[in-house]
Amino acid sequence: MSKSLQAIRGMNDILPEQTPVWRYFEGTVSRLLDNYGYKQIRMPIVEFTELFKRSIGEVTDIVEKEMYTFEDRNGDSLTLRPEGTAACVRAVLEHGITGGGQVQKLWYIGPMFRHERPQKGRYRQFHQIGLEVFNLDGPDIDAELIIMTWRLWGELGIRDAVKLELNSLGTSESRGRYREALVEYLSAHHDKLDEDSQRRLKTNPLRVLDTKNADTQAVLVDAPKMADYLDDESRAHFEGLKARLDAVGIPYVLNPKLVRGLDYYSKTVFEWVTDKLGAQGTVCAGGRYDGLVEQMGGKPTPGVGFAMGIERLVLLLETLEQIPEEISRQVDVYLCAFGEEAELAGLALAERVRDQLPNLRLQVNAGAGSFKSQFKKADKSGALYALILGDDEMAQQVVGFKPLRGQGEQQSIAWDALAAHLATCVVQG
Ligand code: HAM
Questions:
Q1: Residue nearest to atom 21 of ligand 1 (CA)
Q2: Which proteins does it associate with, and in what oligomeric form (predicted)?
Q3: Is any atom of ligand 1 closer than 6 Å to the C-beta of 210?
Q4: Domain of 404?
Q5: Whose CA is closest to atom 16 on ligand 1?
Q6: Helices (H) and strands (E) in the chain — how many of each?
Q7: pLDDT at 204
């Protein structure tokens, strides 16, 4: 017997009963971003592998272990994007839209790919909504990004379940000095470090701060602190950000061990985390990357951004039962017609109603069927009302109007009056 076809592990179908929540989430975020003046950009899903190596960093987990990389028919090494920042920077540079200090406030949405070990909240194909701002170097824009997400959590009803963690990595000079001090300290305790941290000490020492190993964590207690190595400029930037968050009343926790898994960050880094989802609790993360554009061949251009994981936020909405009831109803009105003549009249009537009420979600029964079976389908569709066209209604040029949820008798409505009547009883999105 042939093996049944299956989706790739860690890559999920999003089934019709799940898509209303996704669309609700995506719609809420995109409206918010429009309102703050951000513009959407769409980049390809596949890029040259070199792009990610140069931006994310050669010795990060993503580039070392997690990329979906393949050779195409021309022999070029291509990679399914593991994140959006690199491609966004490539796109703005390629099209010259950040030249001459032009400010760009951009956002994107789409699938990303990382070959991680799948578990709840961690997938191999996952979806992000990301946002990148170019040519603004002050803490005011870092604050705006965080304020915007705070508003989003409020609109979604999940504010109490998320916590903001903040850190500053400083400029690359101050980070360099800190790295030296950290390496010196950790090297003196080399034998007490776990194997992974010993390796990271050589390749990417700041990532040792991120360790989950208890022995290494114990060594880190007395390690030099990043905050003591910040230069004046980074310190002032960080203070400016905190003052703005305080002004708006956004609580945060300072986490000196927050270093992020991508190498391009400088100064501000932040993560929104929840304890409601188990191990994969970071729902949104980002920071400033003032050196990245230059590193990728552009003029010095400050940048800052973040990305949120849609799967994790959808899971959080579900876990906290914060899904508005009306979003799962996809049909307002269901039209049942009995007999061929009624079916033809019903089709024409439905189109006339749609002309007048373009936002009405009107479903016309397909596949004929008895009174009982059409009614069953009307009910199952979730519609609020059924419209009925049978012999009697045809003779009188009316339609039966029957409430399906709750009280109310069936009434007869003249065909010409139907749209006006529906407009009074259905709230249209
Ligand atoms: P990141 O921290 O790698 O940052 O990912 C951002 C978010 O994507 C995470 O906080 C998480 O919610 C979600 N995410 C990441 N990996 C997975 C996964 N395997 N399964 C499910 N969700 C996942 C970035 O990608 C940066 N490009 C963010 C950024 C934009 N920084 C500046 N601009």
A1: 122
A2: Homodimer.
A3: no
A4: 330-428
A5: 122
A6: 15, 16
A7: 86
